[in-house]
Amino acid sequence: MKNSKANIFVKGKGVPIVLLHSSMSSKLQWYGLMESLHRQYQVILVDLYGYGDSPFPPKKETFCLSDEIALVESLLADIIPPDEPFHLVGHSYGGAVGLRFCYKEIEQARATPRILSLALFEPVAFHLLPENDEMWDQVSRQKEIIFSFMLNKQYSAAAEYFIDFWSGAGTFAGFPAIIRQTFLEAIHKLPLDFRALVGEPLSLEDYSKIKQPVCLMAGRQSPLMAQRVSVLLAEKLPNCRLEWIDGGHMAPVYRAEEVNAVIKTFIRGVPPPFSHRWGQ
What we know:
By secondary structure, the chain is an alpha/beta fold. It has 12 helices and 7 strands.
């Protein structure tokens, strides 16, 4: 079924699975995975701030990952009861949001974790890179280039640079005009994503407190800075496995069948919680 709110889509019944998309994308990124899961689960697709059908965040100057989480929580409030557990899936920026979302339970000292598991494809939690890590140069350079384009109102150049960096040279130009226009509308949120990712204060030691099962996925042909974050997390998270996928950072889109198979196998291996609502 489609929820009454345009920025969230719900289909199926059972244990909920919440899916968070990457920057410059929308809930429709996960449509194929939803179609293969909704017969066993309640699948929930969410538009993050500034993407798809979600509004631009109201507090641009102080925007952070916690604001993104607050939006997701508000959208889930009418669908998932407050104490009902769910799986969380995220890609890139959505993966970083999902990771921070899971840590919020630790901050709240919840006796029973609400998040059952995390399946994350290259969460770009750049704040986790050590200060002396050479990958900071890549992150800083990308941020500076995009911010410069945006400051000079070169929105098409900013979108093309970002899309081609993560998907390969010529990708942006190869899209139909209507798709390129969608990217031009979404590009205005991208600087806020960067600020939230770089400015988040949590550390690897903080995230090492996450006890839920975690499946991290990374592309063998992805930019090194994205691979690096995944490897660092895999070394610190106590209940984590790292799966390497042939492809790049956008493998959840361009190699969806392979990525979705890993996600489905992982989630199905997590013991389901008891719930009268699901008839278990």
